[in-house]
Structures are given as C-alpha cells and as structure tokens.
C-alpha cells in the first residue's frame, strides 16, 4: 500500500471509531444548522480534527480541504476530507454514512479511501493500482444498459434551482430501470458503483469532499465519470456528474441530455 494511502486508511479508521461511539449516544449530540437542510454535529468536527491530526503528524506541510474546516495550508499535495458523509442519516440513526478522504497531487486525484464504519467496510484505490474493498479487488458491474439496472442518485433537498431539470432526468431514467436508490451518502454511492452494487449514479450540486475519493475508486474499478453531458472534465468544479461502466455511462448521458440547460453543463458551481 502506498504510504499516503496507508495514512489515509489509518485516519479514516480512527474517524470511524469516533463516529461509531457517537452513534450509540445520539440523544446527547449537539446539532448545528449551517444552512437549510445542512447539518453538522460535534462528531463531524471531532472526526475531521482526528483525521487532520493524523495527516499532519506524518506530513505536517500538506494542505487540507475539509468540509468543516475549509482550506488549510498550501502545498502540491492536498487531502480532501469529508469526515462524515451522510450526517442527516447519522442524526436519525440510519446506519448509512462514511468517512471519505481523497488525495490530490499537483491537481490530480491519486488516492482515495471511503470507510463505512457501521459495516466495517473500507474501500481503497491508488491510481494505476486498482480499487479494493477490504483488500478484495472490485470492478464496476457488467450491466449492458438501463434495463434491469439499479441506479443511485441524490434528490435536490437544499438547492432547488434545477429541480425541474432533475425531475425530468429522474422520470426518464426511472422508466427504463429496475429501480432508483437515494441513500443519502454520495461517497458510498460512488463506492457502490465501483464495487458493482449499483450499476450507475448521477447527481447535481456535489462538493469536492463528497466525491474526491470516489472518483479514484470508480476510475480504478473500470468505470467512467464525467459531467451530465458526458464531458470528461469540469464535474469537480460544477458538482454535477454521472458515472457507471462505459455502456451505462453512455446510456445515462443519453437520458439526461434532453433535460439539460446551459447552467448544468458549465464547469462552475451553480
């Protein structure tokens, strides 16, 4: 295992331990609202602090981009952290959330870790070395099209600017699949596509810490990820993306394209 990835795994596991302890004491949690339907708990903050402490003990000069703490430092290596992706699930006792850590080197994502503490699952990937779930190599599904497929997504729940376009996509895709799942953790959705549990996925308005680790996992598992019109870049900036194996990616893009507007294909956050 690459030394950077090894530190990321250690940090993710420690953060997962904090989350599991707190999950058994949910009634005592302090919950703050950052904006409408956007919550943060002391568990999010404690987990992120633990991750940063472990990273900076090993690599004191490296930069951090965290969901709670924002940008810390300036270095060619940046750790992109979501200490608890799926906070709303966590608050409600729904055991579907994860720690996500992506590592970007000179602007390119090179390593990723997604840890599901409740299931004891840890997904890891290093560019050029494959993707793994608990040390077992994983691949995207072999689905050949939308028929009989299971697709993940994230419903608009905070920003409804493009709700009409999104619901048009949802109707088009749902009518051709075996089902749509909205589970509440983008990091785990990407990990599930990488491991073949989901055949594809699309969502609007994500943040870099939601998807950084998952991008590496998905690509190393043989998947394709891009913007809603199929463009190969800009989705980290816009937060609008679609992914799956090559055939599923193309099939999803075909259903999505008729519902796009100019804003949804622009490489800037909307």
UniProtKB/TrEMBL annotation:
Its cofactor is Mg(2+). Transmembrane segments: none annotated. Mg(2+) binds at residues 67, 82, 84-85, 210. Its EC number is 3.1.3.25. GO terms for molecular function: inositol monophosphate 1-phosphatase activity; metal ion binding. It is an enzyme of class 3 (hydrolase). GO terms for biological process: inositol metabolic process; phosphatidylinositol phosphate biosynthetic process; signal transduction; transcription antitermination. It catalyses: a myo-inositol phosphate + H2O = myo-inositol + phosphate. Keywords: Hydrolase, Magnesium, Metal-binding, Transcription, Transcription antitermination, Transcription regulation. It holds the Pfam family Inositol_P. It comes from the Bacteria. Belongs to the inositol monophosphatase superfamily. This is Inositol-1-monophosphatase.
